[in-house]
Amino acid sequence: MSESQGTDAARRLTEAFGEPYREVVRSAVDAQQRNVQLAQGWVESVTGLLESQAEANRALTRAMESHTNAVEEAIKSQERTSRALAESLEAYREVIERNTALQEQSTNLIQSFFGDVTTELREGMQGSQEVARTLMEGSEKQMEAFQAMLGEAMNSYANLLNAPFDLYRKNLEAFGKQGK
Length: 180
Prior knowledge:
Largest sheet: none
Number of domains: 1
Distance between the termini: 37 Å
Structural class: mainly alpha
Oligomer: single chain
């Protein structure tokens, strides 16, 4: 077997092991990216829904305030029921304000939570990509080392096969010099 055939065999062996490994790493990185995109879409949907709900609550609050104002004007004409209705309206207003404040706090909390989750997922994906790059670099170095080792083994094997012929040639040369 010639040296070029040995080198070709080593190169084909390296390519056979290297490409499937790269494909697995690429697939893992692609899956990680799809997961992050899915999570981001979900977070954006939930955030939009909560923002819509908060806006609806604010509109309800405005409508209730308008209604409250109309009722307060009617109450002014009724001295006796005025105090009772005013107290109940104030309590109702506090409930609405607390509900709106709680809803806004919930929205902020969820936005913060999902923002943190998205950040963590992004950082995790970047870490996974870095690990994949490191693995790919390591596998390339391993393939190069394996190819070099295989080349050296092929050279050693060729030298081993040629050793008897070299010894025979040297003996012929030495015998030819003695005969002259």
